[in-house]
Amino acid sequence: MIYIERKERFSAAHQLYNPNWSEEQNEAVFGKCANKNFHGHNYTLSVTVKGEINPDTGFVMNLVDLKNIIKNEVIEALDHANLNHDVPFLKGKFTSTEVLAQEIWKILQPKIAEHQAELYKIRLDETLNNAVEYFGD
Amino acid sequence: MIYIERKERFSAAHQLYNPNWSEEQNEAVFGKCANKNFHGHNYTLSVTVKGEINPDTGFVMNLVDLKNIIKNEVIEALDHANLNHDVPFLKGKFTSTEVLAQEIWKILQPKIAEHQAELYKIRLDETLNNAVEYFGD
Amino acid sequence: MIYIERKERFSAAHQLYNPNWSEEQNEAVFGKCANKNFHGHNYTLSVTVKGEINPDTGFVMNLVDLKNIIKNEVIEALDHANLNHDVPFLKGKFTSTEVLAQEIWKILQPKIAEHQAELYKIRLDETLNNAVEYFGD
Amino acid sequence: MIYIERKERFSAAHQLYNPNWSEEQNEAVFGKCANKNFHGHNYTLSVTVKGEINPDTGFVMNLVDLKNIIKNEVIEALDHANLNHDVPFLKGKFTSTEVLAQEIWKILQPKIAEHQAELYKIRLDETLNNAVEYFGD
Amino acid sequence: MIYIERKERFSAAHQLYNPNWSEEQNEAVFGKCANKNFHGHNYTLSVTVKGEINPDTGFVMNLVDLKNIIKNEVIEALDHANLNHDVPFLKGKFTSTEVLAQEIWKILQPKIAEHQAELYKIRLDETLNNAVEYFGD
Amino acid sequence: MIYIERKERFSAAHQLYNPNWSEEQNEAVFGKCANKNFHGHNYTLSVTVKGEINPDTGFVMNLVDLKNIIKNEVIEALDHANLNHDVPFLKGKFTSTEVLAQEIWKILQPKIAEHQAELYKIRLDETLNNAVEYFGD
Fold first, then answer.
1. Chains contacting D with at least 3 CB pairs below 8 Å?
2. Residue among A134, A135, A63, A54 nearest A96 (CA)
3. Residue B2: which of F16, F18, F101 has the nearest Cβ?
4. What confidence score (pLDDT) does residue D59 get?
5. B interface mutation test: which of E6, E43, E54, E63 has the most B CBs within 10 A?
């Protein structure tokens, strides 16, 4: 077993808030992240795939295929978007980095499985200092 | 003459658009950056100050003072804000990195001058690949 | 289960030496790191916490709480300190990156447990090229 | 158990191709990487070793020893080399990052074992966005 | 006057040698860089353009145009290429970072001038530690 | 004219204090940096040299020569040292980044001049966020 990792980047706006809470509760929990006019980040998405090395190519999976899957399935929807309003697969969900990582997993997992490889980890860096890692359930 | 540089970071949402143009014109020029629901970035602001070394301290200017000026005068207003709606000194202005760098210069220049030092350069990195530098007029 | 990571930084001086050894033995094993006048580093501390996503917030744990724990419990003691002389929780211990990572674990583990989350990993980067990871016992 | 990591860098040329395939097949699978005049990269090699902390040194393993093993056993052969032609331990093998990571593992594993420590992971970053991790069989 | 910078990356193989010299002379001056089987790098190209801010856009120059010029005019020729053999504008020239920066300048300068902006600087990072800057003649 | 840059790194301890001042004055001005047990940093030194391209090599100056000058003349003295006690060329001087940059300039300038090239800039990064640049008098 060997693991390959591909990074892609996107820039997006979002707001953290719980619609069942008052504005005061939202501000108490989410602080500046609850700004109703939104704020934003440059996200770095790292996708790790595991598999055996194909004896005909020396690859676990062609990185061009992996790059295209990531770009077509998630970056196109997320880049220069408002995560709370513009992204079909995030509708009605929190836009915390945790939830975002899980939803990206759900989309990429079956697409990567079509290439005789297995999604192993989604890592999402939201800022220089904050990141999330998700390995599926 | 010697130059000192201090970096601070902020995360913000913005939209690029010209209010005198139609939606089509805006999209033709600004592309995805014209998204009316906003997108966002992690900005890195680098402030360079020049001056003589003070013989009592070995400093051009105390970096704690420089850090506090940057944080109090610009980061507090810009961090987790919407640059088009929340920032008094950007009202009615484009929120391109170029304009943002110039407006930050106008605010920091007199504050730094109070410390027997001279603002030399504002650099603003918007993404891993895009940046602006401004040296005043 | 999902993992969140927060990075904080500190700058410190230290010396590597074994008090039971001669100066020659210390220099033979620790080389330049045994300099009795000390040397120093900018350390990057990465703290990874695991847990379930809270359905009311979308968070494993509020990153502001995690940041405050790290800052109050370890960064305040380590930043701009001499690791061999100034830090109560390192008294009488080696100040290798390995030992430092373990001692930081001991301090942070119970504090994070108070927030319905679990400390998973301490990573400590000492230089661009050297790092340590500790996952508890 | 604790883990230490050491990074070293090398610059090399290579070509991805399968000698049993036609030029067309090679280009279809490997694209620009099949260029018969070669292309190249700055590789970053991260070697992670696990072990117990030695109570006399505070170290899992002396990083100077680890650095010397990596430099003498692999960097000297790989740096400023053509991976397809100049490196004895890669003769007749694919020079994909996956295969390269496995071959580096085979060389470093026994050398590190001589130091009462255990090789845990080889990570090889080929570009800013592409990397491989190998943990042995 | 304000300055905008755009970074693009390419991976290439090259060899440093003087065809008028003996192999011994080449090795004495260029060392491992003279390897006739080539070695390679991940280069980072930073292009800085200066100009006035356009009052209709807030831009010195549309970064999408700048990105496209860089990609079409230089990256397409240099990426995954052998700088000594595959690149028309480097034929018969040294492939040192200095010469490469000058030749990139010659190609980009007139293309950027068509956009009412002025090429100010070419910076080329060859490794983590080595870079060149060229400002024209 | 073209500019080449070489980066080298060193780790050192230091203390900021004015021996003509009381402890209170030192703490008021230098804060935690006045810690008499020292603190430390990983410094990154960037040396920029300008000159004409040598038509026989394609180089302004051989980077191996530049690297050796930097290592032999300054890194050997500064790495794993206490800047206040161990470095002959800093005796009796402040160990602020500003003064350090100037003293490195004085040492490197004549050595680089012996190679038909001219020292242009010393940049010294003390932390991720603080740096100094010096261009001589």
1. A, C, E
2. A134
3. F101
4. 98
5. E63
| Nearest partner of D43 among D111, D101, D105, D112, judged by Cα | D101
ipTM for this model: 0.96
Residue E74 β-bridge partners: none
Domain count within chain F: 1
- Expressed as residue numbers, the domain containing C95 is 2-134
User: Kindly report the CA angle at D108 between D106 and D111, in degrees rounded to 5?
Assistant: 120
Give the model confidence (pLDDT) of C28-63 as tens digits: 999 999 999 999 999 999 999 999 999 999 999 999
B120 touches chain F (CB under 8 A): no
Q: Which of E5, E80, E85, E133 is catalytic?
A: E80
Q: How many CA atoms lie within 13 A of B64 on its CB side?
A: 7
| 3-state DSSP assignment of residue B98 | helix
Query: Encoding tokens for residue D102?
Result: 């496995």
Sign of the four-CA dihedral A83, A89, A90, A91: positive
Q: Helix H segments across chain D?
A: 23-30, 63-70, 76-78, 97-113
Q: Mean of the per-residue pLDDT values for chain A?
A: 97
- Predicted confidence band of residue D31 (pLDDT cuts 50, 70, 90): very high
Tally: H helices and E strands in chain B:
4, 5
Tokens of F127: 């932390």
Q: Is the separation of the CB atoms in B34 and B27 below 8 Å? A: yes
Q: Give me the pLDDT at residue E136, please.
A: 98
Active site residues of F: 33, 80, 126
pLDDT (tens digit per residue) in D45-57 = 999 999 999 999 9
- pLDDT tens digit sequence for E93-125: 999 999 999 999 999 999 999 999 999 999 999
Q: What are the pLDDT digits (tens) for E43-87?
A: 999 999 999 999 999 999 999 999 999 999 999 999 999 999 999
CA distance B32 to B25: 12
Judged by DSSP in three states, E115 sits in coil
Of A16, A29, A133, the CB nearest to C3: A133
Q: Strands (DSSP E) along B35-117, which ranges?
A: 39-51, 81-82
Task: List the CATH number of the domain containing F95.
Answer: 3.30.479.10
What is the average per-residue pLDDT within B91-112?
98
- Is B7 within 8 Å of F97 when comparing Cβ atoms? no
Report CB contact under 8 Å: C9, F41.
no
Please answer yes or no on whether A37 and B13 come within 8 Å at the CB atom.
yes
Sort A36 into a burial class: Cβ within 10 Å, 0-12 / 13-18 / 19+. exposed
The amino acid at B107: I
